[in-house]
Amino acid sequence: MASISNLSHTLPLRIRKFGPSYFSLSTLSCSISQEDVHPNNPNSYFPKRGQTLELVCESLAFKGKGLCKVTQTGFVVLCDRALPGEHFIGRVTRKKGNYAEVTKVKTITPPRDIVDAPCVYAPYCGGCKTQNLSYDAQLRAKEEQVRDLLIHVAKFSRDDLESRGILKPIVPCDIQFHYRNKMEFSFGPLRWFPKESLHERRVDAGSENYALGLHAPGFFDKILNVDNCLLQSHPANKVLAAIQECWRDPQLGFSPYDVHSHLGFLKHLMLRTGRDSATGLPEVMVNFVTSSYKPELLKFLADKVSAFPEVVSVINNVNSSVGNTSVGEEEYTLYGKSCITETLRGLTFQISANSFFQTNTYQAEVLYKLIEDCAGVRGDGSEIVLDLFCGTGTIGLTLARSVRHVYGYEVVPQAITDARLNAKINGIENATFVQGDLNKIDENFGKNFPKPDIVISDPNRPGMHMKLIKFLLNLRAPRIVYVSCNPATCARDLDYLCHGVAERNIEGCYKLVSLHPVDMFPHTPHIECVCLLELH
């Protein structure tokens, strides 16, 4: 099979409502028959749904999918769970205007850098898609994805990135398993039983069909039953195993929630792990999300899990809506405390059932140290910090000890309540937290605080709204530290801040000094980035 030269292809990707952006697709190869291509138009090739293709994967795309290109035409094919160097047969399941998606049917030659996945659920679970790829190879792939986005979306040249040293080496995570302090599992009446081929899925009927676990890939209503997860803490796994032992007992009267009929009681199980600030010992919160409030029914499970010494809190969130979210409109404490604690950068934080907190506490220490270094706080107590998307105040409070004042803004009311409480717990009085939607700011927004010396912006996956970008360009703070959990929207926003938006007559006024990729979640496609921008 002939391979194509090292080409680059860009695929339109609508990242936010105000316009498309692009991400780079690395080279892969694919063999097709000559009759599939019109002799007068070699770009006319388009695979048919259900057609099988023989593919070779050479790199990973953003979000962890394998990238393939048809040898003769460069037509792009994406395959979930294809790894670099893997030679395989794929079946076309979806087709778009300029690319197709395939599901792997058979591996002919295994991928490069392959390792044995320690988790028995790894071939089927949607969480750890790259667990069977060596960790060094995972890091290389993530770093290359960020580089491609900076070139094709943020419009920096490769020479510029290298000569100015903008893109730093990715920061690895020393703890690659049992690093998550929060896991959410779903109850359901449709247990998913995987076969050897991932494209073949079935659900068996019967009383043993109830499941507690993670959603099967591609299904919102079918659950892969799991007894433990190698990403969550050991104490949380003990709790999960204890619940799995008993909840299906028909004498207990539990029924899993059915997303089709909207009947059933148990919706989700959320397990959070913290550390006691005095002893350093683990604290586990068990949160049962149910469709109604029936404390007498939950008492058995509450008593069962509270027998573990690490369990200090059992919560019941009641979500009576037909939706299947894990946040309830009512919350009840069934056992112990309503919050657990965690220590980060020398500060103590209280974490409630629905609080946002960095999911990998160990790597959050590394991340926040990097943010502090990029912020370049002088330490003389003279600087003003504007903390956008502040959440529960973790970043702003770690900086507050060295600056004059921190002003934090966040849309979630409970997060602001938690931020104020965390400031009080740590004796920090120079931090103000305000609830507000940063996607809906107006011309009066900047009048609520003095001009900042440093802006911290840590948006969620959609990135920053154009209104906020325009505000920051007009504000002209000397330094911006942009913390992103989505490199694609991060690259788009960096382009706007540095190069402007020509169609809107907006000029950029910042230069990108550095970008540090951080691996917060090993074995997953997620990448965190810490970017330092300086006014020029």
Automatic annotation (TrEMBL):
Statement: the UniProt record of this protein carries the keyword Cytoplasm: no
Catalytic site: 485 (nucleophile)
Record's keyword terms, sorted: Methyltransferase, S-adenosyl-L-methionine, Transferase
InterPro entries: MeTrfase_TrmA_CS (IPR030391), NA-bd_OB-fold (IPR012340), SAM-dependent_MTases_sf (IPR029063), TRAM_dom (IPR002792), U5_MeTrfase_fam (IPR010280)
Pfam families: tRNA_U5-meth_tr
GO BP annotations listed: RNA methylation; RNA processing
A molecular function GO annotation: RNA methyltransferase activity
Amino acids binding S-adenosyl-L-methionine: 358, 389, 410, 458
CDD domains: AdoMet_MTases
Annotated ranges, domain TRAM: 46-106
Family (UniProt): Belongs to the class I-like SAM-binding methyltransferase superfamily. RNA M5U methyltransferase family.
NCBIfam families, sorted: rumA (TIGR00479)
Descriptive protein name: TRAM domain-containing protein
Protein source organism: Clitoria ternatea (Butterfly pea)
